[in-house]
Amino acid sequence: MIYLDNNATTRIAPEVLDEMAPYLHELYGNPSSMHTFGGQLHKKIEEARARVAGLIGAEPEEILFTSCGTESDNTALMSAVESFPQKRHIITTRAEHPAVFNFAKHLSRKGCRVTFVPVDNLGRLDMDALLKALDDDTAVVSVMYANNETGVIFPIQEIGEILRERKILFHTDAVQAAGKLPVDLKRLPVDMLSLSGHKLHAPKGIGALYVRKGTRFYPYLIGGHQEHGRRAGTENVASIIAIGKACELAGKSINEEMVYLSALRDKLESNLMKLCADVRINGDTEHRLPNTTNISFQYVEGEAILLRLNEYGICASSGSACTSGSLEPSHVLRAMGVPSTAIHGSIRFSLSRYNTEEEIDKAIEIMPGIIRDLRELSPYGREKIRK
Ligand SMILES: Cc1ncc(COP(=O)(O)O)c(C=O)c1O
Fold it and tell me: Can you tell me the mean pLDDT for 132-147?
């Protein structure tokens, strides 16, 4: 298998698996217990908290463990709405992941007013529209750090500086950025930041939410006293240890990996552009995650490409309907004004540290034949080939 779908999920790093494994069998205690068997796990949770904090330049007490990136995003927005009951306006973007996008829509049905700021044809945020939307009623602004479909990076520093001056709460969904880009909350004016374990070589079902010291916070899960009363529920100890280890590993190799992954990604991208006609890159190639490319192959269906790639054991994603688990084509590519023929033929390749140059060469060898065959089968494609 050649796995080029790392923005969907990643392989658990062997070092992470080794470190979490004992906590799935022999060390199964409850960290809230009075006895040593359970209580000793506290230390491991705090070690993991410090490691997650270390990756993003935070203090350990600013990190809450959650069950996933989605919970972190939902918690951040809900907390803002609960903490500022006199403010009913939420600002976010048209390019957000559903964890923010659909939750903001949900809050709009509960009486909030939501502004979805547009993006341009390169997926860049319309800063003027964001500035115009700000008002005294704004409880929170939530702008993703980097987009999961195109890899486009948003100007978080600039937005944060504006919002800090206006004293408006700022949340960023950094699920795709954490571990792929250096993030330093000592200089980044962000109040809340979400991340997720399974995007950085920890297991699925573990996430974290950074809440800056002094930020008003209202818990989403209410019950026991875990996480100092900020997130109830018995801790997922093994996965907390795993995300801690994964963050430590990412922090050590981030600069090297950025160089390695962008070289592989660029090789894949430039060769596909050269070898397959009528290709376009979706998104701002100047400000992009190093591991991601979103490419449209005109006159073919993304699903058909994925099925053919699958026959060769190559995994990727498409922005068209169905394969993404929804009936709608990508709302991100639509927000960018990508023509529907290009959306339907869009494929996202996303790499990780475990991809090799041989794998990329294999993908480069296979893709042009797949595209040629599929275009032969499509009436539009056939016409184009004849011309
Ligand atoms: C940008 C972004 N935010 C949030 C999420 C949700 O994370 P999780 O799958 O951990 O709930 C994802 C997952 O694809 C994502 O890419």
Answer: 98
For residue 368, count other CB atoms closer than 10 A to its CB. 15
228-257 pLDDT tens trace: 999 999 999 999 999 999 999 999 999 999
Nearest residue to 166 (alpha-carbon basis) of 192, 191, 194, 193:
191
What are phi and psi for residue 315, nearest 5 degrees?
-105, 130
269 Cβ inside 6 Å of ligand 1:
no
CB of 97 closer than 6 A to ligand 1? yes
Q: What are the tens digits of pLDDT across the range 47-72?
A: 999 999 999 999 999 999 999 999 99
- Give 10's Cβ-side CA count (13 Å radius): 28
Distance, CA 70 to ligand 1 centroid (Å)?
6
What residue owns the CA closest to ligand 1's atom 8? 69
Instruction: Report which of 268, 298, 293 is spatially closest to residue 283, judged by C-alpha positions.
Output: 293
196 Cβ below 6 A of ligand 1: yes
| Residue 322 designated active-site | yes
